[in-house]
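Dear colleague,

Following up on Tuesday's group meeting, I ran the structure prediction for the two-component complex that the binding team flagged. I've pasted the input sequences exactly as they went in, so you can double-check that nothing got truncated or mislabelled along the way. The structure tokens for the whole assembly follow below. Feel free to forward this to whoever is handling the docking comparison.

Inputs:
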Amino acid sequence: MNDENRHIDNFEEEIFKKEFENLTPEEKEFVSDFASNENEFNALKDTYFDVSDFMKKEDIPGPSENVKDDLMKSFRAKNSLGGKILGMNAVVVKYAAAAVLAVGLISTIFIISLNKEQEVITDNTTIEKKEVAQELKQNKAVTKDKSAETLEQPNEIAEAELDVKPESDEREEMSKEVALNEEAQPGEKIDILLMADSNVENAGYVINRSDKNNNDIVVYNNPTRSNENSTKVAVDESIISSKRVANASKSEIQESYKSDKYYQKKSKTKGQTLADVSYLMGYMQVAY
Amino acid sequence: LRLTGKKYKDLSDEDLMRHVGKRDDKAFEEIYNRYNKRLFYYFFKMLWKDREKAEDFVHDIFTKIVNNPDIFDPNRPFKTWVFSVANNMCKNEYKKNEVRKTQNEFEFKEEIMPSENGLSGAKQHDNQVFNQSLNREISKLDEKHKSTFLLRYKEELSIKEISESLGISEGTVKSRLFNTIKKISVGLKNFDSDQQNVQITVS
């Protein structure tokens, strides 16, 4: 502390340690408001020393321990994770709430648009249902004899009738350029689009795969069901239910087919609507 | 990183408050330990020696820190800030209790007096009488003079710190301090005269 500040901080003492007549003109001027003569000045001086001495000595008990305990609890609670979230200031909370709402809104819009897309697929499938089913029935006998590993082009089905999406046209065009009955190679991935009606009575699938030159090949197959009375979507045993075994060997796929996981997946489709089935089983990968 | 107990004691008030801002409960405990008694004394003297109220006010002022540790700017002196808040709380209480203030302005309550060990019985008695009379005179002070007086002679704040805490000029602080000493001096003189009169009457 410099001299000026020290003088300011001890200004009472600077004045009261002096005799009245020894005060500087400035000090005398200041003191004159409170003491007009030496006796009054000395009375002030005595009081000042008594008071400052008394105040230094005086002591009273502080607040009870409960106050501290309560405050410490509050502080810890406030600064726990939950407390921090609740204790965030209004601006932060506002921004957080706005962000959550925005994310929620975007998610909702996304889900709605996704559902609409699924509905379009479903609707198209339903419209084509009878024709496809008819065609599939005609080919049933042939297909049953085929090995599960071999995918064949059902010649009788008009491909245009089975296209459910505009993209299928492109695939179809490309597929014409390659051999339709080209056999899949081991480990090759093939997308399968399930098609089924609302009762899941008639199900079929469109197999879309690429050949060695990455040309798309679209192969249609008739539906197979686990048994004649089944209302489940029945899928060829080569279709696997998850990507986990997408690159698995045939034996592994068959194991997967028999595994609990497969049946769980299958049971999930039971009694569900076509949209649900399409959503759940829609594009799947198959490996040979 | 958390500091050890000893390190907290070495920190300045402002550094402790920086830690409090980072939700450090040990720092909060240390700042509480440093100020709870001082604030209690201030509130007790300012609020008509109402112990319960003083305790509530200590709780409230620290709750402000608990709820919003960033309320304090660590670049300012904590002591000045905390007594400024305390003074504002008292001002509000005075406004709310205008009637009570008037009624109790001259009320005197017994307090725990400074220890007088080592003094003779007569001297001890004299000191107790003096202390009581001094306390009485302090109690009579209005809120402005009392707050200035307490901050100066109990908290030993500098003139500048008091001026910042109370939001008044340094000249006003000096003037209030001298006025207070004069009021107490006059009060004690009158008390002495009364005592002498009593003694003369008794004898």
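Confidence is low (pLDDT under 50) at residues 105-110, 112-116 of chain B.

Cheers,
M.
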